[in-house]
Amino acid sequence: MLYFEDIQLHEVMQSSATYPVTADDIKRFAGEWDPMPFHLDEAVAAMTPIGQLFSSGAHNIAISIKLSHTMMERPVAAIAGLGWQDVRFPLPVCAGDVLRLRTEIIDKRVSQSKPDRGIVTTLITLLNQDDAIVTEYKILTLVLRRLDSVSQA
Amino acid sequence: MLYFEDIQLHEVMQSSATYPVTADDIKRFAGEWDPMPFHLDEAVAAMTPIGQLFSSGAHNIAISIKLSHTMMERPVAAIAGLGWQDVRFPLPVCAGDVLRLRTEIIDKRVSQSKPDRGIVTTLITLLNQDDAIVTEYKILTLVLRRLDSVSQA
Question: What ipTM was predicted for this assembly?
Fold first, then answer.
């Protein structure tokens, strides 16, 4: 189990797994959750500035979480998710793209109100086959400290 | 078509549609996208502080977008989504919950660099049957101005 103290600031990890995106996958996700015509119909998508079928942002987030599960070697002593910040979609995800995930620990700090836990900020970056960022966001997680760290504090 | 000028600051809308959450739905979404044991198995979930099966945050986002589609009476002249801010999950979504959506226009401003468009910020709130907030986030959208507004500027 990884506790707050075990999490290394600035550590970067990359998924060895990739996620190949298909037109059927884009349409199936969007059909259930985000039925915008340009996520469902190539002809409509061709008339948008993007010019081809592209995925729902919610689909990109789901793909990033799925890929993150391929990178969990040891479970983290997480108490709760505190939410996401600065979610952006700088480039569209299109059929034929092959996505992979990079994570970086960009901040960690002990809770001021509850010294038995800390807040870890992870930058989640979804990249395509050209190493271009298609989705990026920060996850804030409440993580338990080791008991011996707390008693020394 | 709703242009930037047609969007009313502070306007609040509520979905008349609701989304009833089932255990099967929670497990199906999590099984594909976020296979944490506590999203998949009632017995594991019972041992968490939440004490029962609860949904993936990505699932909540997907539900909110699905409900937003029931509220689109007129299309918005949106050019692009600029991302999401301050995504938070204050309460878990559990089997049996019945969710609905509230949206509020909390900010709108003309783009400084491109005066033919503006940025609209919408607060998206997913509520349960007790009127409690289960998920909340802000969406920033780039929206075209009416041509006559731009030429007068």
Answer: 0.93
